[in-house]
Amino acid sequence: MEAATTMVSVLDVIELFMIATVVAVFIKFVIKIQYMAALVIAGVLVGLTHLVDITVSADIIYYIFLPIILFEGGLAMHVGHLRDTKVVVTLLAFPGLILAMILVGYGVHVFLGIPLLIALLFGAIIMPTDPVSVLATFKRLGAPPRLTTIIEAESVLNDGAGIVAFGVVMAMIHSGVVSIPHAAIDFVTVVVGGIVVGVSIGYLAYRLLAYIDDHLVEITVTILVAFSSFLIAEHFEFSGIIAVVFAGLIVGNYAEVYSMSPSTRFAAVSFWEVAVFLVNSLIFLMIGIELTVGDFVGVGIGPIVFVIVLALVARALVVYGTGFMYWIFRHPIPLSWQHVLVWGGLHATVPLALALSISPDMPERNLLLTLTLGVVFFSLIVQGMSMDWVSAKLGLIGASEKKKEYEYCFGMAFALRAGAEEIKKLLARGEIRESIAKEILEDIKRDEAKAHKGIESVLSKDSTLEKEAKTIAMRKALLAER
After folding, report:
1. Alpha helices (H) in 127-212, listed in sequence order
2. Cα–Cα distance list, 178 to 9, 170, 364, 438 (Å)
3. How far is 153 from 231, CA to CA, in rounded Å?
4. Which of 341, 362, 393 is the last residue of a domain?
5. How far apart are CA 454 and CA 461, in angstroms?
6. N or C: at which end does the chain have fewer Cβ atoms within 10 angstroms?
């Protein structure tokens, strides 16, 4: 991936963090809109007023920000849910993305007169999706776990597929040779190679973490896994993005469960959540700032509206087509879920990074960048800000009070058990008197009994929750047996 380099000072980053904090406080207490959309609007204002003089770098987004975001995505993904949705996720993330890229490419070629390979390059730039805003809505308001998994898994995997497709088309442009079989082989090789690298490094981390009992060192190992899997895959010309996702998947579903203590697991999850929050804050502010450099007047509103509609149509054809195929061969995907997959297919981080990475020597660079910025702005502001309303209208958000109570009691029981284990370790190391340890453990035991009583009470009143809890427990037992 080619990239335009630029220097970003520490002062610039601090100023952006200050702006992000002000925006977070503002939307919390003054106006209720989505945080990411508010950051984009704030970024536009910063760009117009030149409050912070900064240029977005494709290098920073690609080599620093994306590994952090995608590793945390893999870390948080439940392998059981992914196994249940692997067919539809694979269809959407790989053949679905390629089909959408071709549809957009040919549409832009025919109606805007852009050369075919350049138009296909634009299709590869614009079709990768970003799950941040949608998942933030779902996590806050509650949504079916299977739908959340489909959106998250598809987005992190098609980011990798989009970057691979971008590289393949760019190689065709540079060489002047169009070979579909060669391109297909390259695509499969790069994706499979990324999977192999990611799984291998994730497994090595899983084995290594079993011998370490220090949360600071273990978190440092996860950081090393995120960036090393990306860089090693890129070194061998595989997909670094795919490698990071699968490394995170292995660490999150095996190392966290079998190699980390509960306290370390909690610290690691908290660390990566904070890291992603900070990185996303910077990215969406930068997107807003970058919007001010687009030549919207020169390009005109017509072409921008056309590519926005074209991207939505291509996304709809892929999603509804996949839903129809899945309905024929397997269990159907509810139509309401398909509507959310179409409208929730936001385009942000990866499209921006890819558009910025195009060499300034390419004559169509400014046109492609402006069209990309137009689609990104529409995705984040119009689609992103309306996701709450759309999801609510479709009846997909809003966890029941019983489920909230169950999750609270379950989380409390888990936390108390972790606290008891820590007290036992302190006692074994002689850092606490036995009488004090005994008193604390008795208090914890009473509180844990109350939490378990609450869990049993909720499950006895809601058979659906009880069935879901039993299914999760059986999956974990089978995983342990394997």
Report:
1. 132-141, 145-175, 180-209
2. 42, 11, 19, 74
3. 22
4. 393
5. 11
6. C
Same domain, 160 and 181: yes
Tell me the C-alpha distance between 82 and 85, whole Å.
5
Tell me the three state secondary structure of residue 259. Answer: helix
Number of domains in the chain: 2
Q: What is the pLDDT of residue 260?
A: 76
Structure tokens that stand for 460 in this block: 């006895």
Q: Which residues of 260-287 are buried (b: 16+ CB within 10 A; e: fewer)?
A: bbbebbbbbbebbeebbebbbbbbbbbb
Reported as a single tens digit per residue, the pLDDT across 424-458 is 888 888 888 888 888 888 988 888 888 888 878 87
> What's the confidence (pLDDT) of residue 419?
85
1 lies in some domain: no
Count of all residues that appear for the chain in the document:
482
Q: At what angle do helices 145-175 and 180-209 cross, to 10 degrees?
A: 130
| Ranges of residues in the chain whose predicted pLDDT is under 50 | 3-6
Determine the Cα–Cα distance for residues 221 and 226; give it in Å rounded to an integer.
Answer: 9
State which residues form the domain around 367. 10-393
Q: What is the pLDDT of residue 177?
A: 74
List strand residue ranges (DSSP E) for 254-399, in order. none
Residues 107 and 223 in one domain: yes
Cβ-Cβ contacts under 8 Å for 146 (sequence gap 6 or more): 81, 84, 85
pTM of the model as a whole? 0.77
* 170 vs 124: CA distance, rounded Å: 10
Residues 380 and 412 in one domain: no
* DSSP three-state, residue 130: strand
